[in-house]
Design brief:
There is one protein chain. The chain is an alpha+beta fold. It has one domain: 2-Layer Sandwich (TATA-Binding Protein). About 45% of the residues lie in helices and about 20% in strands. The protein is built from two helices and three strands. Strands 1-3-2 form a three-stranded antiparallel sheet. Helix 1 packs across helix 2. The radius of gyration is 14 Å and the shape is elongated.
């Protein structure tokens, strides 16, 4: 679970991460949900090692997203280009 400062930042992170599905051969299933400014993620799989790899990859992506938002400033209040 990751609490982002404002709802819009959480939405940007959610919209970015939700399209990045786990490879089918990984045996790991990732489920993302967004509640206000809280991004919740659930990982499930049969091997702890594969889940750990999925978690590491997820947190690296989340860190990159939050660092990018800090570097370029807060996201626009609304994005309607899709």
């Amino acid at each position: 679970m990751s609490d982002l400062t404002v709802e819009r930042e959480a939405d940007v992170a959610y919209q970015t991460l939700r399209v990045d599905a786990e490879p089918s051969r990984s045996g790991v299933k990732k489920t993302l949900t967004l509640e206000s400014n809280t991004l919740k993620v659930n990982f499930a799989g049969s091997e702890a090692r594969k889940i750990r790899v999925g978690l590491t990859s997820f947190f690296e992506a989340l860190l990159l997203i939050t660092e990018t938002m800090k570097e370029f400033g807060p996201p626009e209040p609304k994005y309607d280009h899709y």
